Every structure is written in C-alpha cells, then in structure tokens.
Amino acid sequence: MTELLVKVQNVGKTYTRGEVQEIALVTATCSVKPGDRIALVGPSGSGKSTLLHLMGGLDQPTSGNISWPGLGTRETLRPQKISFIFQMQSLLPPLTVVENVELPLLLGYVEATKARKNALETLNRMRLNNLAEKLPEELSGGQAQRVAVARALACRPQLILADEPTGQLDHLTAQHLFDVLLDSLEGFDTALVIATHDQAVAERMKTIWQMQHGVLEVEGC
Length: 221
Prior knowledge:
By secondary structure, the chain is α/β, with parallel strands linked by helices. It has one domain: P-loop containing nucleotide triphosphate hydrolases (Rossmann fold), CATH 3.40.50.300. The chain contains 6 helices and 9 strands. It has helices at about 50-55, 95-105, 110-125, 140-155, 170-185, 200, and strands at about 5-15, 20-30, 35-40, 65, 80-85, 160-165, 190-195, 205-210, 215. The chain has a 6-stranded mixed beta sheet, sandwiched between helices. A 3-stranded antiparallel beta sheet has the order 2-1-4, with helices on one face. α2 runs parallel beside α4 (about 140-155) and α3 (about 110-125) crosses α4. The protein is globular, with a radius of gyration of 17 Å. The two termini are about 20 Å apart.
C-alpha cells in the first residue's frame, strides 16, 4: 500500500484579529498520495489558499489534525519535500534567476556546486537557460512564473502545492506555463495540488476538489 504524503482529518482554521474571529476553513478531510494530480476549485475566499498553506505546513490548524506519513514531521517538510508556487511574484529581486532557483537547495544544505548544477539542469530542461543570469526585474510575468516553477522543481520535491500560479497571466501564457509544469512532472511520482479559477487548467487534472464557504467537498473522504 502506497504511503500517503499528506493526511488531513476534520481540519478547520480560524484567525483572530483583535476581537474579531474570521473562519477561513470550516472543515476539510482529504489525502494526497504520490503521483496525484489534483485541482482545488472554488470562489475567492472559499478557503483554497488556507488549505494549501496548512497542507504545506506553513500554518497550523485550529482544529483537526494534519500528518505527513510519507514525508515526516512538519519541521522537515521544506524546502525539499514540499515546494510552493504562488500567484504573485515570488522571486527575490537581488538574486539572478539561477540564484533564485538554487536557493531552496542551499537552504536544504545541498553543497553549493551540486546546487548550482541542479539549478542549471532544471533551467535547461525548461528551456530557461538563456535567462540564468538575468534579474527578476528583467523578466516578463510569464518568464518569472516559469522560473518560479523551475525553483519548485529543482529540489525534486515529493509534493508541489500551487496557489493560482496562472492567476496573473493571460490565457495563452497561462496555458503555456501549465504545459511546462505538467511536462516537467512527466515520469515522476511528484504529486501536484493546484488551486485555480481556470476551468481549462482544472479539467486537465485527474481529480477535482471543490471548496464552498470554507468546506471541502471530496468524494470518498
């Protein structure tokens, strides 16, 4: 039996701001296994980003339980076992493209020469090697997101969590970015969970989860 990467059981999340409590996630029960391709869909404010952050260990639930049977403890998830791709520009401005891509490897204590080699190989595989020495400010929006994908892939994670990665791109650029992401994962057991408003993106995934008013609807969970 394949060991689950993530197991989410009756998880809820409430944020307290002063005297105000904001329920971001009412309840979610789900699991992710190696090789999964999951689209998380639902309107803005439905809890998609909150769920991804909890699954990736960026935040902790108010109720319920999250475990990572196939990955280890929350403290050991990043930067190499789980990678994130965000909607907004997430490259570090002072660093070149190759330095941005190798950064998670260096933070994971990969030797500098090997980190640079892996970063360059990933950029070459994604046909971004011509951008290696450019700064983020010199890139188009589509190029910057492709570099963000390269950064997520460089450490060969077991799970990628993508939060509206095509949300700021036009339709053609968004489709190209998604093509690059799926092609790069071909032949690997890396699982992908992507929150998206783009129906064309969602329909290309094997599984679709629906979020409504902070409640996750997953068949079989």
